[in-house]
Request: fold
Amino acid sequence: MPLDKGGHPLAQAMSGILKTEDMMSKDVIRLTIPDVSGFAKQLRANLPESPGHVEMLNHVARAAGYRNFQQLRSQNPPGPEIDRKRIERAARYFDERGRWQSWPTKRGVRELCLWVIWARLPARQSWTEREISALIDEETLFRDAAQVRRSLVEMKLLTRDRDGSNYARVELAMDPHGLALMSDLAERRKPQENPDIA
Reply:
């Protein structure tokens, strides 16, 4: 989109940025902005004569390739805020290979750990009690598959027949905190799987 080269300070500033960009290398540098509203406020504070907050949000959105801020927001709906301390507390219950080491006493931490086990169960399959216990034992070190199975059923992440002969994973969207924990555990396992060669 061509910039207005008129007298508006924002247009002049953007024009200056483009000229500077022409002299720089064309390497692609990615920028993730956790809070676009805070970013716009900070940007406004550094401009001598800046537009209002909503207008600035629209400028930022257009610079990112959207028609306006409403389109940016509709195509990137705000996600839930992740409690990093909660993730770190749950991560302590896993070893360096991502295996669950011990049973947490706090329910919230325990449920995050259970999401990890749920995610590691193959989708759209069913198992006997012995088969699902073997899968759970592969992911845990404390070897109490019965407790894990019961808890997964109580959380409605797993179904079982009345006689306990058939188990199946319930297919649903993963809890965002569980997803964040899975991501942290995957990062932890990377050095083990791909050691650097000196």
